[in-house]
Specification:
heterodimer, A: alpha/beta, six-stranded mixed β-sheet, four-stranded antiparallel β-sheet, 10 strands, 25% strand, B: MetI-like fold, D-Maltodextrin-Binding Protein, domain 2, 3 domains, five-stranded mixed β-sheet, 61% helix, elongated
Chain lengths: 253, 520
């Protein structure tokens, strides 16, 4: 049943020493879905995400994109087709913003990005075009992650993987960048998988929320269903946190 | 002051050699360090071994490291053939290259293992291959640190390259070693100033490149790099001499690092030049290196001493007397290497125990036998070889000498130590001009514990059969008595009215009637 859909996991397992980080996960994700992978630290959500672009190679099972095993070809070619955004951003400090964004086309040998295309990518992440000639050290944390997202989109990928993308940002930047990513997801018809430990973020952005615990997916619901009480104990414990915060904010107002 | 300026202005060729040697050595260090660093950055064990080796090399004194390459290259001739040079540029280049390895390797490994982990995750995440990651991320991020390592290596190498003089590679060490021997301080200072200035210039240029890379100002880096390359090119250009003399035989004359050797080497060279030979000098060679060099034809002519060869080369401890020792050495050289002993120059430069005349008179000491009673309250000084030599064993055993203190001095300073009272007795050389000048007395050796040290002229196997060479040098044999040699030595060793080595060599030749005094 799992080996269908745009992105599919087929009995994927990964062990680090004595810990089973991902435990026999099978899962199918439809084209155009915005999936949030939620769970506590160490639940295996980042590991599962990284099996898609092979930053982690599973010990057992397969990951399929449009029915093709990701392990079939060389990893670099695979990764150039997949947008990857992570908490640390990892901008190249010795390169300008424009050079950072143009890196995927450069290493793919598909030629240089035009000024216009770089400008468009900056528009997409709502950065002023003048920023193109600056170096990362001159940017704020939020601006850096916006550049990171522009870099991830420069290869015309239709699959975007995000590993705690807003984890290091202040709440206001976080909210606006989250909204921007959701909008980009629609505009560019992306399939997005986002790892987060913040259930509120997942509920606000995603169309489907997967809850992980000890390497297994314990809940797979829409945000509306989760808010209505579905998904079981672990999922509801996570939902309870933002609900309780909202209640207390409501009573103190 | 004007001596210093003259000395500095005369350093052009040495400066060019020094620049090329240092540049080539740093390039060699870089060529070894970069692949090693890449490997070491991927494996902790490789890093440990590579850095351990480089640190070990660094703990070897540069002088010893340079000297060690002579036997190493001699052994390597078994593989690479007899054409492999064992002295001069090659060993100096290899030794200094190893010396330059550590700072570059350490900086490169540190930089590569400390490249920002997030930049590496991003590099992998966007699909860089290993090579692309190295080229676009790791190398540029490590570059300023590698450049800092090159900068340190350059300064070290330029300093250490002065020692290349001891293995026959011309460098800014030439004036330093020659000046130290002859107490010509202007010469020593000129060599020091020139090499320090060179180090400062290299440091500034590479600093410019480093800053240019670190602050992303490529023009700054290019200017620094271009100036450094221009300096190397100028040095290389200065090395290219106009041709036209290629047909003439080149004879390389070696000299150990003391005045008599410098003077005799120049005198021999002048005679051969007059006869149409082209001459190369390899000055300031270590005593052990000289004999290996001449018997392996790395140099062609050396002046050595029978007693030195008797113990160091033949490994003998007995003393058969002056003539028998000479005959045995002539046969031994002929048999073992094919080097030819052309003849004896006439004087001896033996080891002797010397005291000031004043102290000897005061304490009533005329022979080494008289010394035995006074020795326990005395300090004995010797050159760096002396206390390791069998003569020292022989003389102390024969006379039952036991001194309060032993001190080692560079030959030049030994005589000063005697004058200043820092030593009571020294191992003097009998042909030394300072014996008469400083009013010293050589103690008699009634038991003949100290062997004879006839000065002899050795010719390499390569030129051993050259009758023209032998004929040209014939006027030297049996012609130089010890007083004449002492006077020539004193000319360059004395503090007042000091003469240059060339002047002393010309005086010596005129004295022998081998060459008119006013020529040249």
């Amino acid at each position: 049943m799992a080996a269908t859909g745009f992105l599919a996991f087929d009995q994927v397992s990964k062990r680090f020493g004595a810990t089973l980080a991902v435990n026999d996960v099978s899962l199918s994700i439809a084209r155009g879905a915005f999936v949030a992978l939620v769970g506590e630290s160490g639940s295996g959500k980042s590991t599962l995400l990284k099996t898609v672009n092979r930053l982690v190679e599973p010990d057992a099972g397969r990951v399929l994109i449009e029915g093709a095993d990701v392990a079939a070809g060389p990893a670099p070619q695979l990764r150039r087709r997949i947008g990857y955004v992570f908490q640390g951003v990892g901008l190249f400090t010795h390169r300008t913003v424009a050079e950072n964004i143009a890196m995927v086309p450069l290493i793919s040998g598909t030629g240089r990005l035009s000024q216009e295309r770089i400008g468009k990518l900056l528009d997409l992440v709502e950065l002023p075009r003048e920023i193109a000639s600056r170096y990362p050290e001159a940017l704020s944390g939020g601006q850096r992650q916006r550049v990171g997202i522009a870099r991830a989109l420069a290869g015309d990928s239709h699959l975007l993987l995000m590993d705690e993308p807003f984890g290091a940002l202040d709440p206001i930047t976080r909210a606006s960048l989250g909204a921007r990513v959701r909008a980009l997801h629609e505009e560019l018809e992306l399939t997005t998988v986002m790892v987060t430990h913040d259930m509120a973020e997942a509920l606000l952005l995603a169309s489907r929320v997967l809850v992980m615990e000890a390497g297994r997916i314990v809940a797979d619901e829409s945000p509306a269903a989760l808010l209505a009480g579905a998904g079981g104990e672990a999922a509801q414990a996570l939902v309870a946190v933002p609900r309780e915060q909202a209640r207390r904010l409501g009573t103190s107002a | 002051m004007s001596d210093l300026v003259t000395a500095l202005l005369g350093l052009g060729p040495q400066l060019a050699e020094h620049v090329l040697l240092s540049g080539a050595a740093v390039a060699l260090g870089l060529a070894m360090a970069l692949p090693l660093a890449l490997w070491a950055a991927r494996s902790r064990n490789v890093a440990r071994v590579a850095l351990g080796f480089a640190s070990l090399v660094q703990t070897i004194p540069a002088l010893a490291l340079l000297a060690l390459f002579f036997p190493v290259l001699l052994a390597a001739r078994a593989v690479f053939g007899e054409g492999l040079p064992t002295l001069g540029f090659l060993p100096a280049w290899l030794a200094l290259g190893l010396y330059a390895l550590l700072p570059i390797l350490r900086n490169a490994v540190t930089a590569l293992t400390h490249v920002d982990a997030e930049a590496l995750e991003a590099a992998d995440g966007i699909g860089m291959t290993r090579w692309q990651r190295l080229r676009h991320v790791e190398a540029p991020l490590a570059a300023p640190y590698v450049m800092a390592g090159i900068r340190t290596a350059s300064v070290w190498t330029i300093g250490a390259a002065t020692l290349a003089t001891t293995i026959g590679q011309p460098s800014l060490g030439d004036p330093i070693f020659a000046g130290l021997q002859t107490q010509n301080w202007a010469l020593v200072l000129a060599g020091c100033i020139a090499s320090a200035a060179l180090a400062l210039v290299a440091d500034a240029l590479f600093g410019l490149v480093e800053r240019g890379i670190a602050t992303r100002r490529p023009r700054l880096a290019w200017i620094g790099g271009a100036l450094a390359v221009a300096g190397l090119a100028a040095a290389g250009f200065a090395q290219v001499r106009p041709g036209g003399e290629a047909g003439r035989e080149v004879v390389t004359i070696g000299a150990k690092s003391f005045s008599e050797q410098y003077i005799l080497a120049r005198a021999i060279g002048m005679m051969l030049e007059d006869a149409g030979y082209r001459i190369n000098y390899r000055d300031g060679l270590g005593s052990a290196v000289v004999h290996e060099a001449v018997t392996s034809s790395a140099i062609d002519i050396s002046v050595d001493y029978t007693g030195t060869l008797w113990t160091n080369q033949l490994g003998r401890t007995d003393n058969p007397g002056r003539a028998a020792m000479y005959d045995a050495i002539v046969k031994w050289e002929q048999r073992t290497s094919g080097a030819k002993v052309l003849g004896r120059l006439g004087f001896e430069n033996a080891y002797g125990l010397a005291m000031t005349q004043e102290q000897a008179d005061r304490e009533g000491i005329a022979s080494i036998g008289d010394l035995a009673g006074a020795a326990p309250s005395m300090t004995v000084g010797g050159d760096p070889e002396w206390f390791e030599r069998p003569e020292w064993q022989a003389v102390t055993q024969a006379y039952g000498l036991r001194f309060a203190t032993q001190r080692t001095f560079a030959p030049t300073f030994m005589y000063n130590a005697l004058k200043s009272g820092e030593a009571d007795v020294i191992s003097a050389y009998t042909s030394d001009g300072r014996i008469a000048a400083d009013n010293l007395v050589i103690l008699e050796d009634p038991l003949e514990a100290l062997p004879s040290y006839d000065a002899i002229l050795l010719v390499s196997p390569r030129l051993a059969g050259d009758p023209a060479l032998a004929a040209t040098l014939a006027p030297l044999f049996g012609a130089i008595d010890v007083e004449t040699m002492r006077e020539a030595n004193l000319m360059v060793d004395r503090d007042e009215g000091k003469r240059s080595i060339d002047e002393a060599a010309r005086w010596l030749l005129a004295e022998l009637g081998a060459r008119p005094a006013e020529s040249r």
